[in-house]
Design a protein that fits this description.
single chain; mainly alpha
């Protein structure tokens, strides 16, 4: 990297940050800003020049320059604190110091990383209103859930060994916990988003979002409400169709993360079911616009440490049991085990299938094994909906589930022929 490129990149990222800061503080009184658009560009340039001196003259020159700039910023912030008005934020001085550090990083071999960090800084700064608005919607339980998720992601995950242990050497603690992080993170994101949805059409949208953490729970709740004479059944049926589509979409994302090599044959088996369920959801949504159904709300915070640990333990037990089944009965036995697991938890079934020994199944057979719990779960809910929602309305609401189960079964039969190695 040439020094000229580093200097130009530093000025560019400084101007970008300064643009946001200058616009944010455009109504400040004269002299009320620590730094504006020009100053942030100069701060980044100063950091870059300090790095250039440190690399080519003496590291002490660079340290003295950086130290001087930071001291000047702190003194300016101190003077701003002494003013009479209370419109003072620590953000400006923090951003100023980070801008200097970005310029320094660009000249010391971290150009790409510094550009990404500068873009992220600008995005975070520009989202001030949105972030503060989200913060006001959080309950104490939500804050606790975020803290727990941070702990299992940033504390527990790095401490777990990355090697196969246990019976049949079937368990990799870090990989197993990484799946827990992914699944619970997706669940919490769906829960948080569903809290922000309201009005009658919110039933459909919240059902799709809620299905990212429990399509079965969403389907059961909407089916139960079908029996109420005070609610329009169309939004409820549309919500069930949306949840029906979201479950295989969520599983497809999980497959893409765990087994990207079998994603295409897996999508060939479940893709038509996704398309049909989405078509049902869209058609029913347009018919249900303006309906009187109450918006569906998130009933609980889905993220807690004990369900996460329980999920990991469940998957671990099933993985070991699947290895034992392979020893005793071969691939056909494990397909039955994973299919039955789909009755209870599709995610656990998918994780179990992803932990099978390499080479046990070819790509199409493994894709069929991944699609099997989706088929079983869809069939289970196709029975559940009429039971909870009544024969007439429940049977109509179950049509997307019945169609999905049939299409997945046809996909498995055509692409794999039900032949497991």
């Amino acid at each position: 990297m040439s020094n000229l490129v580093g200097l130009l990149a530093a000025v560019g990222i400084g101007l970008l940050i300064g643009l946001e800061r200058g616009w944010r503080q455009r109504d400040e009184h004269a002299g009320g800003r620590i730094a504006g658009i020009r100053t942030y560009a100069l701060l980044a340039l100063g950091g870059a020049l300090s790095g250039l001196l440190a690399l080519n003259v003496s590291i002490w020159f660079g340290l003295i320059c950086i130290g001087g700039i930071i001291v000047a910023l702190l003194l300016a912030h101190r003077a701003r604190l002494a003013e009479a008005d209370d419109n003072v934020s620590a953000t400006n001085v923090v951003v100023s110091i980070l801008t200097v550090m970005l310029g320094l990083a660009m000249m010391t071999g971290f150009l790409r990383e510094a550009i990404v960090a500068g873009g992220m800084m600008t995005l975070i700064l520009a989202m001030r209103e949105q972030l503060h608005g989200w913060l006001r919607t959080l309950s104490a339980e939500d804050v606790r859930a975020v803290a727990v998720y941070g702990a299992i992601t940033l504390v527990v995950l790095p401490l777990l060994p990355d090697k196969n242990i246990g019976p049949y050497a079937a368990l990799n603690p870090r990989n197993l916990w990484l799946v827990v992080v992914f699944v619970t993170g997706l669940s919490f994101a769906g829960y948080w988003a569903s809290k922000r949805v309201g009005d009658a059409q919110g039933t459909i949208i919240a059902a799709a979002i809620g299905a990212t953490y429990s399509s079965t729970a969403v389907t059961a709740e909407l089916s139960r409400r079908l029996r109420s004479s005070q609610e329009d059944p169309l939004p409820l049926r549309a919500g069930i169709a949306a949840a029906t589509a979201m479950m295989p979409i969520r599983i497809s994302i999980l497959v893409a993360v765990l087994l990207p090599g079998v994603l295409l044959p897996f999508l060939a088996m479940v893709g038509p079911a996704i398309a049909v369920a989405l078509l049902f959801a869209v058609l029913l949504y347009w018919r249900a616009r303006g309906g009187s159904s109450k918006a569906m709300t998130a009933r609980r915070n889905p993220f807690d440490i004990w369900p996460a640990i329980g999920f990991a333990a469940l998957v671990g037990v099933i993985v070991i049991l699947s290895r034992w089944t392979i020893d005793q009965y071969g691939g056909r036995g494990v397909s039955i085990l994973i299919g039955l697991t789909g009755l209870y938890d599709v995610d656990a079934a998918i994780v179990t299938a992803s932990n099978l020994p390499t080479g046990l199944l070819d790509r199409s057979s493994l894709a069929a094994l991944l699609a099997l719990p989706v088929l079983v779960n869809s069939a289970l809910k196709a029975v559940l909906v009429p039971v909870l929602g009544g024969v007439r309305d429940g049977a109509r609401a179950a049509i997307p589930l019945i169609a999905s189960a049939i299409l997945i079964a046809i996909g498995i039969a055509l692409i794999n022929g039900f032949h497991f190695a």
